[in-house]
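I would like you to help me understand the sequence and structure tokens below and explain how sequence relates to structure.
___
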Amino acid sequence: MALNVVNLLATSRFAEYIDLDHFSIETGLDFDPDRFPGMTYKIENPKVCALIFRSGRIVITGAKKVEDVESALATTYNEKRMLQEAVDALIADLEAVV
């Protein structure tokens, strides 16, 4: 009997808390907490879906290989890091004005 992997699911935690309202505005990602408590981030390459939750947890679905999971986690982490750097710069600018 041969096994065929068709979908990997992986979970990770990359933050203590994520402000999904702000994150969705900055990234343009769909977030409707009345419909689903997480944000859906569809990644084209590799073709996977990342579900991001306020708790800092992320669930990667649709991966065919472990490498796809690793790539999706890196992509999602980099998106969050770039957003955080932009927010930090904005806060620094506002503090300089005050």
Observations:
- Residues 8-97 form a domain with the TATA-Binding Protein fold (CATH 3.30.310.10).
- The radius of gyration is 16 Å.
- The first strand starts at residue 8 and ends at 13.
- The mean pLDDT is 82.
